[in-house]
Amino acid sequence: MTQDVTVPPIAPPPESALRDERRADRLDRIVGTVQRQGALAVLVLVAAIGFAAFPNFRSLANAETILISAAPLALIALGMTFVIITGGIDLSVGSLYVLGGVVAAYASQWGVLAAFLAPLLLCGAFGVVNGVLVAYTRMAPFIVTLAALLGARGLMRALSNEGSETYLVRSEAFRAFGSGEFLGLAYPVWLALALFAGGAVLLGRTRFGASVYAIGGSEDAARLMGVAVRRTQVNVYVLSGLLAGLAGAVNAARLGSGVTVIGVGVELDAIAAVVIGGTLLTGGAGTVAGTIAGVLLLGVIQNLINQVGSVNISWQQVISGAFLAVVVVVQTYLTRLRRIQ
Amino acid sequence: MTLLEVAGVSKTFPGVRALDDVSFALQPGEVHALVGENGAGKSTLIKVLTGVYQPDDGAVRYRGEPVSFGTPLDAQRAGISTIYQEVNLVPLMSVARNLFLGREPRNALGLVDERRMNREAADVLTRYGVRTDVRRQLGTLALGAQQMVALARAVMVDAKVVIMDEPTSSLEPREVETLFGVIRDLHAQGIGIVYVSHRLDELYQICDRVTILRDGRVVHTGPLEELERIRLVSLMLGRDMAEVRREGVTGFTGEHEVQGAQPVLRAAGLRNRHKLHGVDLAVRPGEVVGLGGLLGAGRSETLKAIGGALPLDEGTVEVAGAPLRRRTSVGAVKAGIALLPEDRKAEGIVPSLSVRENIALAVLPRLSRLGLVSEKKIDTIVERFMTRLRIKASSPHQRVGDLSGGNQQKVLLARLLATAPKVLLLDEPTRGIDVGAKAEVQALVDELAAEGLGVVLVSSDAEELIEGADRVVVLRDGVVVGTLDGADVSTEGLLRTIAAASSAAASAATQEEAS
């Protein structure tokens, strides 16, 4: 398919220019690595401090606790990563997470399959509406998904009698999924790992992933280059809705009931985790691996604060907020550094 | 067989007839120049050819078949590739990713084969003179290299037609040579090329045929060789050489009395990579100096550079003998330079605010004391300028967005004058406003000059330039190529200077750039 173009030989650029070019290549690689792996480095550092300072932190059981409690947020953040890379935002995921949990617990009376499918269908439908509104009416994702946030929360309250009724999980198999283990890791953790692996392939190695990056980098250019902008936008919001619903189901399975009083502000935690993980809030750049690091970093910070014991749990949010601020400032600086050469 | 053809195509936007019964034919292996001034309809025609716009009327035929491309993707799939003037690639993605977006090589599992993609990208780009790590973000490359990536991408898609919109505007001379090499090669392969550029030298160097658009109509089409440069320019600008110098078409009265020998504005050696290559300009009080030249010659850029809105690599600007130290818009305003931007909607007025608020925006810093502003003082100033400029509004509180174009322009002028400038830079002051308001604005420029302001006027309306200016400095490719003085300030003189074979001047400029 490539046409054979025989461009006449060009006078090679002077040696000094080549040297500059190589230096620019190198600098760009270093800065890019910091942008992508910064969160991982900080995670390792914080975990190392935890290892050194708190004997309880070192235990295998504690590591498992961190992983299992991070699993729902991880799923939500995975979908959010796709949305943010396209330059969008999905505020509805917190509500969809709770709604998914309530629906999963309710549907568990018809078996484990229904307990998974019902929240996926419902939250996926919310994702379709979000995506279609963003892609076809060109409304701001912020407003569209804010509306979905309110709508999903309202629906959840309507289904649960103003939030006062907590449905218990009726399916043994569904409950077993929430509490069971395989090779020492809880099923939800395995599920999250598998989906992250899939997400990394989807984002990094498929044409769909390339479209996601292209849209976030420059929507106009993407359209002119022939990217199916609208379809891709719809898909990322559907993906985000599905994962939020799944996260709700996983949490319901783990808790054994559809708890209605959680989930407020979860969308903001997810956004924080994604951004800390090196994804640009303006879109166009980011990785799934970074998001894992971001989610775990938030989880480890929370866990460490629990270890200290005497410190009020609310400090976790203060520290997470400070991290977020630092990350955003550093990201901005690094991006500028890459441009000026 | 004609490769790509439009017949009788019209396209109307609210208030503008962008294309009016336009026909255009591209033969295989032909390099077809498409030229015209701002608003002539080139971009619209390109967008119709590539499926961005659907024509209201008329037909597009591709390889003999009537076609209707719904999206750029459809056109691209059919073999029509476009390189836009602004590099339309994704700056945050890697070079290789950009090159292959949408047709990445895939392995047996259907996954993108990154190694192969990077290797092939490196191979392809080497042939275009781009030597860089293809994994680098595209946005970190120089503009010329980015343009080359866009070109490589356009050619790679098995194109039958390549449309190039001002492809050389950000290229170094060495890169222009590479581009021409690619074009000659495509030409030999029977690929049709639509080449949009304002650089006459380039057109004559590389193009076979030319189609000239003006005000949405085709005014000429034919072999380029047979068309004299001056004729080409006069067709573009719409000035018949025979009907030169008609008096009284504009609101200008004629010569101005130059006051004092010391220039109020002196700009020297203005340089900005790709845009300006050493422009000198001096304006005395009471003088109107016109800047002539074609689109892209560097007229607006010169004004912006003086007004602090375009960063300079080199050059000095002096107002009344005092050099400007901080080269920012604020610094320029403080020094007494007022710039009327070309695009008043995007860069000038605030349509949702009232006439009074728009005028007051500029004077607020000067009138406020401890952050407080006297409402009465503002009222006085606003009233003075509304009367003075004959701004027709129901009251000072009318929304500017509801005024006519001419009155909007006057509000903007009022805002500039309220800062009591010494130098007025006017970029297309009468574009898009009706005839009556046009004459009024022109008369106003006369008056302001008579009051001792130094005025620099950019206009693509040749008559306005000739009759309004005492002196016309002609630019081409960011260098001054001539100055018309006294009796030479005529349409014919202007056309001759613009069209003059510029090889000497141009190559001197490029050599200077390269060194």
Automatic annotation (TrEMBL), chain A:
GO molecular function terms noted in the UniProt entry: transmembrane transporter activity
Bilayer-crossing regions: 37-54, 66-89, 109-133, 140-159, 185-203, 234-253, 288-305, 317-335
Annotated gene: rbsC_1
Protein name, per record: Sugar ABC transporter permease
Membrane topology term: Multi-pass membrane protein
Location relative to the cell: Cell membrane
Matching CDD domains: TM_PBP1_transp_AraH_like
Coiled coil: none
Principal localisation: membrane
Key words, A-Z: Cell membrane, Membrane, Transmembrane, Transmembrane helix
Record-level GO cellular component terms: plasma membrane
One Pfam family here: BPD_transp_2
TrEMBL record, chain B:
Keyword Membrane: yes
Any one GO MF annotation of this record: ATP binding
Highest rank taxon of the organism: Bacteria
Gene3D superfamilies according to UniProt: P-loop containing nucleotide triphosphate hydrolases (3.40.50.300)
Compartment(s) where it occurs, according to its Swiss-Prot or TrEMBL record: Cell membrane
Protein name, UniProt field: Sugar ABC transporter ATP-binding protein
Keywords recorded for this protein, A-Z: ATP-binding, Cell membrane, Membrane, Nucleotide-binding, Repeat, Translocase, Transport
Signal peptide segment: none
Main localization of the protein described in the UniProt heading: membrane
Native species: Spirilliplanes yamanashiensis
Domain ABC transporter, first and last residues per copy: 4-240, 244-502
UniProt topology in membrane: Peripheral membrane protein
InterPro entries: AAA+_ATPase, ABC_carbohydrate_import_ATPase, ABC_transporter-like_ATP-bd, ABC_transporter-like_CS, P-loop_NTPase
SUPFAM superfamilies in alphabetical order: P-loop containing nucleoside triphosphate hydrolases
GO cellular component, one term: plasma membrane
One Pfam family linked to the record: ABC_tran
